[in-house]
Amino acid sequence: MSLAKARDLLRLAEMAASRHAGVTLAEITEEFGSDHRTAQRMARALEDAFDAVEVFTDESRRKHWRLRDTRLLRLQGLRDSELVALDMSIRRARREGADNDVRALESLRDRLLATLPRPHARRAEADAEAVLEAHGYASRPGPRIPVEPRLLDTIVEALKGPFRLLIGYQGPTDTAPRERAVDPYGLILGVRRYLVAFEPDKDTAPRHFRLDRMTSARLLPELFSRRDDFDLADHSARAFGSYHSEAEYGPVVWRFAPEVADVAGSFVFHPRQELTREPDGALTVRFCASGWLEMAWHLYQWGDKVEVLAPEGLRALTADWQRRDFDALP
What we know:
Elements: H1 3-18, H2 25-32, H3 36-49, E1 53-57, E2 63-67, H4 71-74, H5 80-95, H6 99-114, H7 118-133, H8 149-160, E3 163-169, E4 178-188, E5 194-198, E6 207-210, E7 214-223, H9 232-236, E8 250-256, H10 261-265, E9 274-277, E10 283-289, H11 292-299, E11 306-310, H12 312-318
Antiparallel strand pairs: 1-2, 3-4, 3-7, 4-5, 5-6, 8-10, 8-11, 9-10
């Protein structure tokens, strides 16, 4: 049995053990993205691997598989991917000011780690930290482009190696996807999600690959050495959102009217912003970044309560779109 199939079987056992009514073929199909015949094979494999599986049929003549003996599952401990998900949730909750959720999630995280043998706990924390460092920004609520979960799982595995990746990618000028070998350095999450990577022995600057344009991703057997001169946090900070443009990069200055200065002052527009309260009560925000279009999308929400002082290109982009009739601030 391959490693991927073994992981799927353990995941199926978790589902059968955690749900009171067990798991059905329809739920297996939905969880693993498989067809009906593959779901049947997985259910049979579950019966073969776990003696304590109960199989029964409900009133609608649907078969259920339920696992009562969970001792083997408890031996798995906490996976690094699960710890990453917890830590990312804590970061999002902290960013959104949900302090009660932060405390609850941190308490859950500590209790789970406390149940593990120390070597296992240290390894899980180290792997989780490596993945967290590879995320330029935590994703935020709102519209987003969905990404195939298994594609994202493969990229995360590559970041932990770090392993070279072979991706199928169709760029805006490509008539069909083509394969590229890349060295992955991290993810930038937002409305669109980007893989930050270098093409080996070719690139001096990182490339951004949109995950929604990727058709496949496969781990290659070779490891690569990360560049000492590249820092993902510094790279991410060169953009206002997820879009980078070297041509647009430079100083940005916004002036918020006195009546909205307190509200604007509660925002983190950029991780390296500088806020200045002016004598008339206005608030001036300064930072260096690119991505004028994403800035314009955000500034539109402030109506005529914000003025762009720099750069001139962004000022021209927003000049004719400042409304006075918005009833609320962002």
